[in-house]
Amino acid sequence: MVPLREYNDSRAGDPGVERVALLVKGEDGTIRGGLWGIIAFDWMFVEYLVVPEEARGQGLGSELMGQAEEIAREHGCLGMFLDTFDFQAPEFYRKMGFEVYGRLEDHPAGQARNYMSKRF
To answer: Per its UniProt entry, which superkingdom is the organism in (predicted)?
Structure first.
């Protein structure tokens, strides 16, 4: 892995990796959901957005994405990107300004995985 990182750094420079975690905790302090991402090469990748079942439809997902966008902008990012299955939330992300830039059909069978980005 180190030789690959050295090669990448020699071609693209230091990626400036920073991890982002916006946690949603229950009353007992346990983590119930949140947003996890990585900032690298001037973009934020949203790895996971998890809204607890009981909080869905109440704006929590939009709030977390808004906070992540604010963090990305503060770090000088050019935009954000993520992936989502058809059965997850592509329409939610479209409403937030994300566009599909790629699609992998039949992943899983009969569905698709959508690769989406939002440039600031």
So the answer is: Bacteria
